[in-house]
């Protein structure tokens, strides 16, 4: 007889210990969820589905709608499901249906999942809808140093050489109170200069939460010119699955011409290779579009994966009620935003 169950699990050190027995990335750990909850104005929560002692873990952020209803989203980044590889597609489908029913019973209206481009490549679930958004780029760090340099676009090579010729130097450090403060100042100037949406204007509470919760899993790589910090980036590291990931970065406007961001990416790639990582996931364009950011990242690697999300409406009646209550939303118009009732005016 099949034994199938679904339950909530607290996001804490015990959660970390359990999911670390499977293929994970930093986005699945309690420290990342605690920090991401600040962005999404919610509460971190784990959901565990078990099929004959084989499990799927879903790290979610619970966002309250009213006193009775809420919705679920995965973390900023790629916090997709953590799956026991013994499970086949049919069993995963059964589990997903059980989780959908469980969440609906608990008051959940909708569930949004950002799938991990590396760990969730084979995701094929009939419950809900999987949406392909666009390409994301990954550098294969198992290559030789020469091969990595050869796959670097000529324009980027020139930029790296220009930075080095201008005596731009870099520091690779684990995250600290000092370097995250420097990073935050540079990042905010960059986001302001590119007119980024308010969502990406992360506050100090978020950055210091990353520092406090993930001190050994985040790198801050900063470029200096004459002892002035001119560019900086945060790279995530997951030793368990040998995955690095570019998280956020920025360059001061007055120093863009020196190309420090290209040097930082080159240094991150070299550091990861020497430290034994297999991947440096660069990400894609804004909103997974093939824009100038995508083109910039492709200058370091042409290896493409597909960024996908998965959407499930757990309570269709309440979902439609919330859409109708939002006066600025045209329920009949096509929109990729999910859940639609949270689309900004």
Q: How is the secondary structure organized here?
A:
Blueprint: E1 4-9, H1 13-19, H2 30-40, E2 43-51, E3 54-64, E4 70-73, E5 82-83, H3 89-105, E6 108-114, E7 129-140, H4 145-150, H5 154-165, E8 169-174, H6 177-193, H7 204-213, E9 218-225, E10 228-238, E11 243-251, H8 260-274, E12 279-283, H9 292-298, E13 304-313, H10 316-325
Parallel strand pairs: 4-6, 11-12
Antiparallel strand pairs: 1-2, 2-3, 3-4, 3-5, 6-13, 7-12, 7-13, 8-9, 9-10, 10-11
Helix pairs in contact: 2-7, 5-8, 6-7
Account of the protein in words:
By secondary structure, the chain is α+β, with helices and mostly antiparallel strands. The chain folds into two domains: 4-127, Gcn5-related N-acetyltransferase (GNAT) (Aminopeptidase), CATH 3.40.630; 136-306, Aminopeptidase (3-Layer(aba) Sandwich). It is 32% helix and 29% strand. The protein contains ten helices and 13 strands. Strands 1, 2, 3, 4, 5, 6, 7, 8, 9, 10, 11, 12 and 13 form a 13-stranded mixed β-sheet that branches. A hairpin with a 5-residue loop joins strand 3 and strand 4. The longest helix is centred in the N-terminal third of the chain and has 17 residues, at 89-105. The termini are far apart. The model has no long low-confidence stretch (mean pLDDT 95).
